[in-house]
What does this fold into?
Amino acid sequence: MSAPRLHTPLDRFIVETQRALETVFGDPPARRPNPAAGIPEMALEQDQQRHAAGLMRINHVGEVCAQGLYFGQAAVARDPGTRDHLLEAAQEETDHLAWCADRLRELDSRPSLFNPLWYAGSYALGALAGLRGDGWSLGFVVETEHQVEAHLDEHLETLPAGDLRSRRILEVMKADEARHAEQARQAGARVLPPPIPALMAGASKLMKAIAYRL
It folds into this structure.
């Protein structure tokens, strides 16, 4: 029986490029069913539909960023267990990405025009965090997921009352994000020192302001 083939730098570059293209320009399938399946579509006023689409575009961008962050961290992870944890979380984020894309189409809208930029920046941040060590990398996961949970709570409060399909998707996403944070904490995440969480929150605020419209 031959030994498994080792990946060359070119192999890894091709894999990472394919992941980026699929995330930003493709339509990667979800592994789990859309949680909004079976929930009836309610008629929304034009401004309500526009607002719901803006929120779901922000959430779609968040999932693009999560893919970039996790793939960047996994690319430089030292421990195979950490790498597996990051790639498994990325798969669940792919589910979120697909669900948000489905909902944007239902709302007659589109993803952010800046998704290539969001992905590239997140990938670079993930790789930098990973190079500091797996504990710091997992610390970024915990902080990222906590901030995502907070903005999902905001969106659940401001969604139009009749948009039950978006609401169900966000509820499942929120539960997944909380689980990812807890798993990362149990895997040895380090607490990020100030001002890193504040800088992350500031960057997220800018992203949300842009993605809501573009």
In short: Residues 46-76 form the longest helix (31 residues). The chain has one domain: 9-22+42-211.
